[in-house]
Design a protein that fits this description.
By secondary structure, the protein is an alpha+beta fold. 45% of the residues lie in helices and 16% in strands. It has a five-stranded mixed β-sheet. The chain has a two-stranded antiparallel ribbon with strand order 2-5. This is Reverse transcriptase domain-containing protein.
């Protein structure tokens, strides 16, 4: 999202194509995977060959079992190594394109930033063709019917767009106004309204479920269940979308959290939720919780314990710059190189 935010803040459009791979984990070719291990310089290729070969599977239907069959492709799912093996398999996929390609397990996205939507669509189409060729060479397949394209930008700029069409060969990719990516629903203008709507829907549903069983839950159980089943929705990736919300959307989130706290403390629906109530359940308000999470990110970056891709977006201010900065009061302060909406 940082790349998209940065492009929009620079006055550009950002086009995205979300690739949908058909049965990605089940179609990994073992021989190709082992060859890639050799190219990586791994010294345990024979071990992986043994791990992947001669695996058997059976099918059970209505207490009837099929005869066992040898698994000739795919990575073992449900194991710790499964996702890692798949990542190794697609690790060289970005080399096949001439634009940004982000990989997260089998969720892959192409991103192109630019001034003109037609040129962005053309660049995405060309790179999508390259991706498809790479997938065919590696015995993977792209589900064009479920692959989606979206153009990000400000509301004002998006009103002027009437021709954004991404193709893969002769097939037209479905153009959408919002996409679900890694559990978040992203709007074309990154307003976050869809994210808030989903949070309220899911949190409200789970809170109703807990109310139906409140008579068998003590205070500790109510707090534990709310933290695990509801508060997680407020926390998930909040540092990337919360700051862009309207005041009304932020109020809606706080109202939902207040309902959760009333359930924990067994208060009536008109009870005011303030600092004392938050302290009683050892929780922070939605806005303060977001600040806490962002500060944790900054601390990890400062300690250089965060992932490298996060640390690369920041520089340390030199001693000379620090002396010239009248507002700086501590050493080793960080500043973002580009968009600074996350921290």
């Amino acid at each position: 999202m940082d790349y998209i935010h940065k492009g929009i803040s620079e006055g550009d459009y950002v086009g995205m194509v979300l690739l949908d791979l058909q049965k990605a984990f089940d179609t990994v070719d073992h021989s190709i995977l082992c060859e890639k291990f050799k190219l990586m310089g791994l010294g345990c290729v024979q071990w992986f060959k043994s791990y992947l070969s001669n695996r058997k599977q059976i099918v059970t239907v209505n207490n009837s079992q099929s005869i066992s069959g040898i698994v000739t492709c795919g990575v073992p799912q449900g194991s710790i190594l499964g996702p890692l093996l798949f990542l190794c398999y697609i690790n060289d996929m970005p080399l096949s394109v001439k634009c940004k390609l982000y990989l997260y397990a089998d969720d892959s996205t192409l991103l192109v930033q630019g001034k003109q939507p037609t040129l962005i669509a053309q660049a995405l189409s060309e790179n999508l063709d390259r991706c498809r060729s790479w997938l065919i060479d590696n015995k993977l397949s792209l589900h064009l019917g479920k692959t989606e394209a979206i153009l990000f930008g400000t509301k004002r700029k998006l009103k002027n767009v009437n021709n954004f069409q991404v193709k893969c060969g002769n097939a037209i990719i479905n153009n959408v106004k919002s996409v679900k990516y890694l559990g978040l629903t992203l709007d074309a203008d990154l307003s976050g309204e869809s994210i808030v709507s989903n949070i309220l829907k899911k949190a409200g549903g789970r809170l109703k479920f807990l109310y139906r069983h409140s008579n068998i839950l003590n205070l500790k159980a109510r707090k534990t269940l709310c933290s695990a089943l509801i508060q997680c929705y407020f926390d998930y990736s909040c540092s990337s979308w919360y700051m862009g919300l309207t005041k009304r959307s932020k109020q809606k989130l706080q109202i939902m959290q207040n309902k959760m706290i009333r359930f924990i403390l067994k208060l009536n629906s008109r009870s005011h939720i303030g600092c004392n109530e938050l302290e009683n359940v050892n929780m922070l308000s939605v806005s303060n919780r977001v600040k806490q999470i962002k500060l944790n990110h900054v601390y990890k970056i400062w300690r250089e314990t965060s992932p490298e891709y996060m640390f690369e977006n920041f520089n340390r201010i030199s001693d000379t710059e620090l002396k010239n900065c009248t507002r700086a009061s501590i050493n080793n302060f960080f500043f973002s190189q580009g968009f600074n909406g996350i921290v």
